[in-house]
Amino acid sequence: MKKYIYFFLSLILMNSCKQENKSQTKDTVLDETALMEKAKAIHEKVITLDTHNDININNFTEDINYTQDLDTQINLPKMEEGGLDVSWLIVYTGQDSLNVEGYKKAYDNAISKFDAIYRLTEEFAPNQIELALSSDDVRRIHTSGKKVAMIGVENAYPIGLDLSNIQKFQELGALYMSLSHNGHSQFCDSNTGESDGVWLYNGLSDLGKEAVAEMNKWGMMIDVSHPSKESMKQMIELSKAPIIASHSSARALCGHSRNLDDEQLLLMKENGGVVQTVAFRSYLNTEKYNARNEFMTSVYKKVADSLGLTWYDRSEFASLDEETLKEFRANRLKITNISNDLASKMDNVPPDVNVEDFVNHIDYMVDLIGIDHVGISSDFDGGGGIEGWDNAAETFNVTLELVKRGYTEEEIEKLWSGNLLRVLDDVQRIASELQKAS
Questions:
Q1: Range(s) of the domain holding residue 203
Q2: Least packed by Cβ within 10 Å: which of 155, 157, 337, 411?
Q3: H or E segment to which residue 388 belongs
């Protein structure tokens, strides 16, 4: 008799478990739906701002430009699809010899990129995107329904030895500038000195110290993403205004020289600045990146070869001439897109660095220095991009992950744009005071 009772009870229990599982599944679906709707509402409401998107002037012509969904990570259709409101378009110049000829060539290159940005905003798409020169401009343009362009200068090398070019670049719309890139400039040591222990100045040169004062005076944010740690510390000591790291992450989580260690992060907090966490695979998770990169490099090389091209690792960039590097950058995304599509059909592919790894860095820095000093950047079309945020069309996935982690709408607004725009306001206010005093 007891055997039949147990059998009967087991049937009841099994049926009860099935009902409970169905209920749990339904609740999970409801929770995920509610989460998605909450994230969508926040993403639609806040101003989403990415502080670092590289450009190729070949994509700023009458026939080929950002009004089209080009084979680039950033363009207007992708911004629209992903809900990215503000793109900082970068006037980048690679490091070359510290001489008059090098400075002149770099200056011309920089001016060509300023001109390209103006062609986009004034000739090709004035009804779709507008250049902003202040936080008020950003909010006004966003309210109008247009996308926002802003300008940053990556590497002050084109300034040459004439510091009046700082004012000129600012008048052209540049609102931040780094005093070096990959290689020591006339202004300061680069983070790249860590690899060989060779330094030119042990921080800032005398000209670099003068440049800090000029940037303060003309309202240009100082960017410390590429300079060395000692350079960064000296900039903070000299600067009368807050500074930014336009595209860097936390060194405690990934030991790359481009990331900021805890001492640097705490200095950024003390300075009142902001660190724009960057979605760059090798700056986020070393182990995942190395495993994936080793596998994918062989795929990239095969795909590039099939297209009659050559694949170069970032470590080789410094040895390439400008034309070769320009050609590679123009074809890089095509190669990676084809390769990623092939890899998606392969077995045993190492996992990619993804949005969760990215937000881990945001979490870490928020815990260490506070929500007011952390922001977001991608380095799209300059090597950036991760699984889940590999182009501007996927921007919503960042907001979704932040909502999953429990960030509030107010906190997400600060991360996406509020903190960076606050620093810009401070820098421009201090510049106005310095100009009046002089």
A1: 46-285+353-437
A2: 337
A3: none
How many domains is the chain partitioned into structurally?
2
Q: For residue 273, what is the domain's CATH number?
A: 3.20.20.140
- Kindly state whether residues 164 and 308 are assigned to the same domain: no
Residue 281 — φ and ψ, nearest 5°? -50, -50
Beta strands 147-154 and 221-223 are unpaired
Helices 262-271 and 355-369, packing angle to 10 deg: 60
Lowest mean pLDDT among 1-15, 164-178, 215-229, 268-282: 1-15
Residue 307 pLDDT > 60 = yes
Query: What pTM did the predictor assign?
Result: 0.89
Domain-located, residue 2? no
Structural tokens at position 26: 């339904």
Q: Please, what's the largest Cα pairwise distance for the chain?
A: 101
Residue type, 17: C
- 1 domain residue, yes or no: no
Place of tokens 């000299």: 238
Cα–Cα dist 250/283, whole Å: 8
Half-sphere exposure of 223 (CA within 13 A, CB side): 26
User: What would the pLDDT profile of 252-272 be if each residue is shown by its tens digit?
Assistant: 999 999 999 999 999 999 999
Q: How buried is 244 (Cβ within 10 angstroms: 0-12 exposed, 13-18 middle, 19+ buried)?
A: buried
Domain assignment of residue 77, yes or no: yes
Helix (H) or strand (E) segment spanning residue 148: strand 147-154
- C-alpha of 118 from chain center: 21
- Residues 263-284, mean pLDDT to the nearest whole number: 98
Residue in the structure block whose two tokens are 């709408």: 409
| Structural tokens at position 426 | 């401070």
Taking only the tens place, the pLDDT of each residue in 112-132 is: 999 999 999 999 999 999 999
Check if the beta carbon of residue 98 is closer than 8 Å to that of residue 185: yes
In DSSP terms, 278 is beta-bridged to 377
- Inform me whether the pLDDT recorded for 24 exceeds 60: no
- Between the two ends of the chain, the Cα-to-Cα distance in Å is 101
Beta bridge partners of 174: 151
CA distance 229 to 223: 12
Same domain, 143 and 268: yes
- CA atoms within 13 Å, Cβ hemisphere of 225: 28
If asked whether residues 160 and 228 sit together in one domain, one would say: yes
Answer whether residue 90 is part of any domain.
yes
Per-residue pLDDT tens digits for 89-99:
999 999 999 99
Pair 64, 119: CB distance under 8 Å:
no
Indicate the residue among 352, 372, 389 that finishes a domain: 352
Q: Are residues 299 and 398 in the same domain?
A: no
